[in-house]
Design goal:
Layout (H helix, E strand, L loop, with lengths): L21 H32 L1 H11 L2 H28 L6 H25 L1
């Protein structure tokens, strides 16, 4: 029987070798914010179901939704909505064939991050 020699291939570089790039971070943030919105939606639906159920149950759920935890969830959800919206606009821009240069793509990633923080703060000030 023939002797099997292991093929000597280079190992894939580990994630620690790479410097995080804004394009990859913005892609990861888009996925995180999209999935994170589920928490805010669940809390809001729970609140609406409690409102339809009765005053005692609504008082309990309303206490949770208006507590510091509810404020945190809804504020994070607002930030996620703004980020997801801006990232969607960025992807539409990319789909049209624009902004695909590395410098432009990184700048648009920062626009999404900074813009979502600014728009969240403005929304909270208006409300």
């Amino acid at each position: 029987m023939a002797e099997v020699k292991p093929v000597e291939r280079p190992l894939s570089p580990h994630l620690q070798v790479y410097r995080p790039q804004m394009t990859s971070i913005s892609s990861i943030l888009t996925r995180i914010t999209g999935n994170g919105l589920i928490v805010g939606v669940v809390l809001m639906v729970w609140w609406l179901v409690a409102a339809a159920t009765g005053p005692e149950y609504f008082a309990t759920v309303n206490a949770v939704a208006t507590s510091w935890f509810g404020d945190l969830v809804f504020t994070a959800s607002l930030l996620a909505v703004w980020y997801h919206y801006l990232a969607g606009l960025r992807h539409l821009y990319f789909d049209a064939g624009h902004g695909l240069e590395v410098e432009t793509a990184e700048m648009l990633g920062w626009v999404c991050v900074i813009g979502s923080v600014v728009l969240t703060a403005l929304t909270l000030l208006v409300i």
